[in-house]
Amino acid sequence: AKLLVLHGPNLNLLGSREPDVYGRTTLADIDAGLRQRAQAAGHVLESVQSNAEHVLIERIHHARDDGTAFILINPAAYTHTSVALRDALAAVAIPFIEVHLSNPHAREPFRRHSHFSDLAVGVIAGFGADSYRLALEAALARLPGH
Ligand code: DQA
């Protein structure tokens, strides 16, 4: 099956961005690990990072036509702001897992609300780069035919 990983704004800076909060693993390393794991399980995984809301929205629209079976998304700051990105996921009705490196509930109050969690199959947060790995395992276990 096809899996799509979406990374929101500022996650291109992973590795150097607030390492005490987000760790030292780069986004390229995270994506490579996910791709390998998906491939080993007989699946195809594509990762997209964007700092622009419309790019993420349009990639989600395209997922409806390209056979994407499952989405992993770290909406980053858009978690707390973007009704438009939420609506895109609702529109395509592809199951998704919400992923965060940090635990937003242990941080500033404005990070406690997510526009995505109630639509998500589940939420994995607080385990650094491992959050993505754990989310992928959860997604693989839920793919059709598994
Ligand atoms: C984040 C948490 C968000 O609150 C923040 O805006 C991010 C990253 C995380 O992965 O921990 O950019 O989604």
TrEMBL record:
GO terms for biological process: amino acid biosynthetic process; aromatic amino acid family biosynthetic process; chorismate biosynthetic process; quinate catabolic process. PROSITE patterns: DEHYDROQUINASE_II. The active site is at 22 (proton acceptor), 100 (proton donor). Its EC number is 4.2.1.10. Pathway: Metabolic intermediate biosynthesis; chorismate biosynthesis; chorismate from D-erythrose 4-phosphate and phosphoenolpyruvate: step 3/7. Signal peptide: none annotated. The record marks 17 as: Transition state stabilizer. The keyword Chloroplast does not apply. Pfam families: DHquinase_II. Gene3D superfamilies: Dehydroquinase, class II. Keywords: Amino-acid biosynthesis, Aromatic amino acid biosynthesis, Lyase. InterPro entries: DHquinase_II, DHquinase_II_CS, DHquinase_II_sf. Substrate binds at residues 74, 80, 87, 101-102, 111. It catalyses: 3-dehydroquinate = 3-dehydroshikimate + H2O. It comes from the Bacteria. Catalyzes a trans-dehydration via an enolate intermediate. Belongs to the type-II 3-dehydroquinase family. Homododecamer. This is 3-dehydroquinate dehydratase. It comes from Rehaibacterium terrae.
